[in-house]
Write a structure and sequence with these properties.
By secondary structure, this protein is an alpha+beta fold. It contains three helices and nine strands; from the N terminus they run ββαβαββββββα. The chain is 26% helix and 29% strand. The longest helix is centred in the middle third of the chain and has 20 residues, at 45-64.
């Protein structure tokens, strides 16, 4: 039997998302599943994505703050649609997983202004000789 998750959209339409794992289907629980192999997301997709946007805004705001904010911030995470909990950050080994990359670009003026012996953020991980 094929299984799917009904995802309510803002305009009232329904998107069906395939559930590929029998374990995932079994985890939904009998209360949320229908006999035809369909379960419903307990919220509109836009509501869940609004929470994801707030989450990512907070992560970015905190990573960009500080006395030497990075020039570039990249945050990657997976989003999961769950019939039990709605739209969530996907887990990795029982914990939420974020891949964060911070980059600093030094100009020659910045390098000249640095006190001797202090490493710039992008040079801190380089081995010293």
């Amino acid at each position: 039997m094929e299984y799917s998750l009904e995802v309510p959209l803002s305009d009232g339409q329904i998107m069906h998302v395939e559930v590929t794992s029998q374990d995932d289907w079994d985890a939904i629980g009998p209360v949320s599943r229908r006999s035809d192999g369909v379960a419903a997301l307990p919220e509109r997709l836009s509501d869940g994505l609004d929470r994801i946007r707030s989450f990512s805004d907070e992560v970015l705001t905190r990573l960009r703050s500080g006395s030497r904010p990075p020039d570039s911030v990249q945050v990657q995470f997976g989003v999961k649609l769950s019939a039990k909990t709605g739209v969530i950050v996907a887990e990795s080994n029982g914990e939420a997983h974020l891949a964060v990359t911070l980059q600093w670009q030094r100009s020659s003026a910045d390098a000249a202004d640095e006190p001797a012996g202090e490493l710039a953020p992008d040079a801190a991980s380089e081995p010293t000789g």
